[in-house]
Amino acid sequence: MKEIVVSGIRSTGNLHLGNYFGAMKNFLKMQHDYQCFFFIADYHSLTTHPTPADLHNNVKQVLVEYLACGLDPEAATLYVQSDLPEIAELYLLLNMNAYVGELERCTSFKEKIRKQPDNINAGLLTYPTLMAADILIHRAQKVPVGKDQEQHLEMARTFGNRFNRIYACELFPEPYAFNYGTSLVKIPGLDGSGKMGKSEGEGNAIFLADEPDVIRKKVMRAVTDAGPTQLQQEKPDVIKNLFLLMEAVSAPDTIAHFDDQYNAMTIRYGDLKKQLAEDVILFTAPLREKIKELSGDDAFIHKVAAHGAEKARESARKTVAEARHAIGIRHF
Ligand code: TYM
Question: Which residues pair with residue 21 across a beta bridge?
Answer without folding.
Answer: none
